[in-house]
Amino acid sequence: MIQTPAIVYANRLCDSETMTNKLIYQIKQDRLSTKELDKLQARCTAELSELRQELNELLKELRAIADGSNNRPAAQPERTAA
Questions:
Q1: How far apart, in whole angstroms, are the C-alpha atoms of residue 6 and residue 54?
Q2: Which pLDDT score, from 0 to 100, does residue 1 have?
Q3: What is the pTM of this model?
Q4: Contacts (Cβ under 8 Å, ≥6 apart) of 9
């Protein structure tokens, strides 16, 4: 009989609420082996690191945008000929 893995991953665990809920249920029911829990922990650690990096990049972009808008002189209203 072919056995399917207990954990089937989405691209990111946090991208799938369904997957997150399934994993929480499996953990609460004590259905994951120690090896599977170790893999899950490693995956969560890696994803957390990726998310932190993405957040840092977004914050840098936002700061650059904010600095750019603070350094620009106030825009003069355009006048149109009547």
A1: 29
A2: 45
A3: 0.63
A4: 19, 43
